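Running this now, will post back.
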Amino acid sequence: MPARFKLARRHRQAAFPSDRFRSGWPRIRFDRDELAFGLKSAIVPWLATRMIVIPVIFMVREIATKGHLPLAMADVAKEGLFSWDAGWYELIAAHGYGAAGHSALRFFPLVPLLARGVSYLPLMSVRVSLLAVSNLSALLGLALMVILVKQETRDSATAVRSAWLMSLAPAAFTYVMGYAEATLLVLTVATFIMLRNQRWWWAMVFGILAGLTRPIGILLAIPAIIEGLHEFRQAAFRERLGRLAAVGGGPLGVLSYLAFLGFYYHRPLAPITIERRHRGGFTDPLVTLYHEATLLAGGHHLEEALHLPWALIAIALVAVAFWKLPACYGAFGAAVVLVALSGQNIDSFERYAMSAFPLVIAGAMVTSGPKMERYVLAMLTASLVAYSTLGFLHLYVP
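Update: finished.
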């Protein structure tokens, strides 16, 4: 090959690093130096989220204490970090599903089990342990995402920016509360790292744990299929088994919990039926978007219609993920957004969309440049303050 063509090829690979990753797997290096870089890059965004959310909680409690809210709203506003779903996770961790009641069955068991286990340590109550699991998971999840993004894009700035975008997203205050989303972030990113490294059996393990954390873990089968099909015919028999195991990890985790519900409570489909009551039946995402647009245009139910801008941003970021990242990232992001938009109402859409971490990576890739970065981070900071305030006032469903 002539030298000029070799040089052009090298420049093309440097300019579009993800092209190389489509034809094979990079080895995601995970050693002490990379972990140190990930933690160092994640700690400041992680602290920033808490420096924003904690004062909001005190402000809301002060408003509630001084009687500036209706009595019912004042009572729930005082719940703080244990409001909404966090209260359910605390109840399950402390007393189990039997004492928590039928509605608790829609919450998957891994986070309550972890919180219950940590609570046996000295000076650890169930409440403190639940917050410890959530907040430490958020830090580790951000660090793993930084490592993954840095090595996928070969761009440290994009990796650090992705941590900031995730930390300042509108629903990021749930990473401070006793929610399961932070633990899900750790497990989904870890699954992707293992898939991209062809560590199929480890991908299965993390997929199972993700499926035991949130039902959305079942969607990890999609990137596993995409990665596993690459050169499947050339793989040895044992490796083929590993690839199939990786595909089954997320579904196996979800099905394990459903089997538990069927054995102990004779309600294997309880999470589906309960969720259907909360979100309505499944519907066409296009119909959902049209409905939200008409609400926004008509000025009715604005608290629901305001999900529309974030839904449109998420759809745009799915397209960016398909364009700039290997197919497994875009496919996973698209599946999460599709599921989030498939209900008759899209309450908590912003939180569901955060589970599609490839969208955050895509956002980090298209917001480079000092001015753009400052503008986006300022906008997200304002949105985090607004959404967390509305969430703790129980005017927004996180």
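The first helix runs from residue 3 to 15. More later if anyone needs it.
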